[in-house]
Amino acid sequence: MKADTVAAPVKAKGRSSLMNRFLYSSKVAPYVFVLPFVLSFLIFFAYPVFTTIQMSFQEVLPGQTHYIGLENYKKLWSDSFLTALLNSDRYTIWTILVLIPLPLVLAVFLNSKLMKWSSFFRSALFIPSLTSVVVAGTVFRLVFGDLDDAVMNSFRHLLGLPTLNWLANSSAAMFVLVILATWRYTGVNIIYFLSALQSIPQELYESASIDGANTWRRFWKITLPLLKPVTIYVITISIYGGYSMFTESFILWNGNRSPNDIGLTMIGLLYREGIEKNNLGLGSAIGIALLALTMVLNVIQLKSFGLFKKED
Prior knowledge:
With 312 residues, the protein is mostly helical. Helices cover 71% and strands 3% of the residues. The longest helix is centred in the middle third of the chain and has 28 residues, at 170-197.
């Protein structure tokens, strides 16, 4: 009996030391720490992508599926797909053209020592990003309404311009979408650029000033080159955000049916085919096409910035 009571702590101690050797082993520990990330990647990314690719070659019906080859991909070349692709292209290009230079310039001003109330303006510009997309979209739908007493039409009347149905015109609707994106995400991009600006050593600017460089030359030769990494990051997330835009369009038109599909996006088309029409096979094909498109565009922009060049 006494031998058993002595052996139990010895066994527990042996198991504890074995566990410690396992966890603190220089060979095993790295895999233990990486394991949660690997599992989450496999479960929440790799497996869904694999099943989506598989479904894109299938006709998915309630309770049954069967392979139909490339039929779903052949259906992609429809008017709806090309319209959604064009709308997403326009939206992404415009948001990149606005949401890169504008936050960059504002961040430079906010980072300047001569700027007064800098903290207040940073907070004020960041607050819109905390607003719900549903709330923001609803407010913008009212502001840019087709009624005579809508806010933007009231401004047009002051200028002697007629009432405009903003959300029934392709160019005006795209303008509203870009304004909404600018209002919501300018503050976020300012934070990215500010964090990069504050990491630039002031000695570089002081040395350039001593050498006679003016403000513009310091900005062009020092600030922009050193902001390259964060600029690449902002462009990358802007490409993803542009092509994944859906909620803004859905709320502005109070549904996924805009006049002549002027607000239809790639995700909107995926939602229409996969959820509304219950055609999960075609919806999966649209998703895979969108994934391939964003990956190709990001690889092109990364290559254009020289990220794949070998260092000498």
